[in-house]
Design a protein that fits this description.
alpha/beta, D-Maltodextrin-Binding Protein, domain 2, 7-stranded mixed sheet, two-stranded antiparallel ribbon, 11 helices, 20% strand, SinI_DNA-bd, PBP_domain
Length: 318
C-alpha cells in the first residue's frame, strides 16, 4: 500500500505520470514539482505528485505521455495566451495527448492545445465556442446510451458530429482483496463504507449519480459523497493508501497504483464531439486520418483498458 509520505524516485514519478525521467527533472527546475534530497539523491512523496496533478489546471501544449488525469477548473473564457486560430482539444485521456502530437506532425500549420477538463464542462466549452473538440463518456440512465443524449441537451440548435475514440471499463477501485466485499452500486450506501468521489461534471461522477438515481438513493446519504478528487489516479491512490474504501474510475489506472483491485461494472464509450461546421476543416480531417491509421491503433492495441475496434467511426450526426 503506497502511503502519502512514501519516498519516490524520479523514475517512480516518471512511471506514474507516464513521462520521460528527464522531464521530471525539468519540472523540478521550473518549480512545478516539489522534491527533497537524501544525500545527493532526489526524492518525492506521493503528495508531491498529487499536488502537481492538482495544480496542472490550464490549457497547455500537449506533452506526449502526460497522465490522463491532469485536469483544470472549468473553462469559462479564452485565456490571453490562446489565439483565435488555435485548435483546442478537451479531455483527460493519454490517448488525446498522443493524438494532439500527431496532429501537429501532419498539419504543422495547426497549433494544437489541450484542456484537461471533464466531459460535462467539455461539452459546455464546445457550445460556448471556447474549444474545437470536446470529449465525453457520459451515461444516460434512462436510455442506457452514452453521450448522444447529453450532446442534444448541452448543444441545443448546434449541428454536431460524434466520432468514436475508444471503449473503456469503468468500475470500483477497492483495497487489495476487496476486504469489504464491494460489488454493486447499492453496496455504496452501506454505513460501514466511505467513498472518495469525483468532481461534478466528470463522467465517473455522472455514472455514479445516474445509478444512484435509478436505485432511488440520495448521494447525500453515502459516507464520503461530498469528498471530491480531480483525477482517476488520485481516487485510486486514496483507496490504495487506505484513505477510502472505494472509488470509481477506469480499469487502466488500477494497474498503475499499488494496493488496489478493480471491480469491473460497465463498458463506457469515450468519444469526440465536433461542430458540423468544423467537420471538413484540416484539423478535424487530420484527426480522422490519424484515428483510422494502423500506426495510431498499434500505439494502444496492447494497453490494458482500451477497446479500439470502433476507433474513427462516425457514431452520429445530430
Amino acid at each position: 500500500m503506497m502511503e502519502t509520505n512514501t519516498a519516490l524516485t524520479a523514475q517512480d514519478v516518471a512511471d506514474i505520470l507516464k513521462i520521460a525521467k528527464n522531464t521530471v527533472y525539468e519540472l523540478i527546475k521550473r518549480g512545478e514539482l516539489n522534491s527533497y534530497k537524501v544525500g545527493r539523491k532526489v526524492r518525492f512523496t506521493l503528495s508531491d505528485v498529487e499536488e502537481y496533478i492538482a495544480n496542472s489546471k490550464c490549457i497547455q501544449k500537449p506533452l506526449s505521455g502526460r497522465i490522463a488525469s491532469l485536469e483544470p477548473a472549468p473553462l469559462t473564457s479564452p485565456t490571453p495566451m490562446v489565439s483565435r486560430n488555435d485548435f483546442i482539444i478537451c479531455g483527460q485521456d493519454l490517448m488525446l495527448d498522443v493524438l494532439s502530437s500527431q496532429i501537429e506532425k501532419l498539419a504543422p500549420a495547426t497549433r494544437t492545445l489541450r484542456s484537461y477538463i471533464g466531459s460535462y464542462n467539455s461539452l459546455v466549452a464546445l457550445y460556448q465556442g471556447h474549444v474545437q473538440v470536446a470529449t465525453a463518456h457520459l451515461w444516460d440512465g434512462d436510455t442506457g446510451d452514452y453521450n448522444i443524449p447529453y450532446v442534444r441537451r448541452l448543444l441545443p440548435g448546434i449541428a454536431t458530429v460524434i466520432i468514436h475514440l475508444t471503449c473503456r471499463i469503468q468500475g470500483f477501485y477497492v483495497p487489495k482483496g476487496n476486504p469489504k466485499q464491494i460489488y454493486t452500486w447499492s453496496d455504496l450506501s452501506r454505513p460501514d463504507l466511505n467513498i472518495i468521489n469525483r468532481e461534478k461534471g466528470s463522467g465517473s461522477r455522472i455514472l455514479l449519480d445516474e445509478n444512484l438515481r435509478l436505485l432511488g438513493q440520495s448521494g447525500q446519504s453515502i459516507n464520503g459523497y461530498r469528498r471530491e478528487s480531480q483525477s482517476h489516479f488520485a481516487v485510486a491512490s486514496t483507496v490504495g493508501r487506505g484513505g477510502a474504501d472505494v472509488g470509481i474510475g477506469q480499469e487502466k489506472v488500477a494497474h498503475q497504483v499499488k494496493g488496489v483491485d478493480f471491480i469491473p461494472l460497465q463498458k463506457e464509450r469515450y468519444e469526440l464531439v465536433v461542430k458540423k461546421e468544423d467537420f471538413n476543416s484540416t484539423p478535424v480531417q487530420t484527426i480522422l486520418e490519424i484515428l483510422r491509421s494502423e500506426e495510431f491503433r498499434l500505439e494502444f492495441e496492447g494497453i490494458n483498458g482500451y477497446y479500439i475496434e470502433e476507433m474513427g467511426n462516425i457514431i452520429a450526426e445530430i
